[in-house]
Amino acid sequence: MNAELTLYYDGRCPFCATEMARLQSWNGAGRLAFADIAAAGFDPLPLGLDMAALNRESHARTADGALLVGIDSLLAAYTLVGRAWLVWPLRVRFLRPVLGFAYRGFARHRYTMSRWLGYRLPPRCEDGACALKHPFAQ
């Protein structure tokens, strides 16, 4: 089954990675696909974008090739997994410009905001060994 929407996200961003994991947990019907733009070997050229654009705000591509950017990509993703009620303010016409502006600010400072909100990435594991940071060396 082909996904209806592919989300492009920054897997190095703790908040972003957490939200994508949440969406994946709700994606029982397989309507979403996920692409980590921070993964080794990720190539933005097939999207017709550069990494700077992908890092500015989230992007998603529909099955028919339409590109959704920013809050439109989030609205589509949450709607496809049956959680549109979580992002209902994104549908309110007079709120969209304000929320879009706030989202772009958050996206620009997502690492700092992740840290302030207490989000952390889990340790990376390869070949059964996980790299744990020393608690006093962080």
3D structure, described in words:
With 138 residues, the chain is an alpha+beta fold. It has 5 helices and 6 strands. The protein has helices spanning 14-26, 51-56, 71-80, 96-108, 110-117, and strands at 5-9, 32-36, 59-62, 67-69, 125-126, 129-130. The strands form 2 sheets. It has a 4-stranded mixed sheet with strand order 2-1-3-4. Strands 5-6 form a two-stranded antiparallel ribbon. The relative contact order is 0.16.
Condensed summary:
It is globular, with a radius of gyration of 16 Å. The longest helix has 13 residues, at 14-26.
**Shape descriptor:** globular
Question: What is the element string, with H for helices and E for strands?
Answer: EHEHEEHHHEE
- Tell me the radius of gyration: 16 Å
Mean pLDDT across all amino acids: 86
Beta content comes to 15-25%
Largest sheet: 4 strands, mixed
As laid out across the biggest beta sheet, the strand order is 2-1-3-4
Count of individual beta strands: 6
Q: Helix share of residues?
A: 25-40%
Ranges where pLDDT stays below 50 over 5 or more residues in a row are 134-138
Classification by helices and strands: alpha+beta
What distance lies between the first and last C-alpha atoms, to the nearest angstrom?
A: 43 Å
Alpha plus pi helix count: 5
List keywords for this structure.
alpha+beta; two-stranded antiparallel ribbon; 138 residues; 4-stranded mixed beta sheet; disordered C terminus; single chain
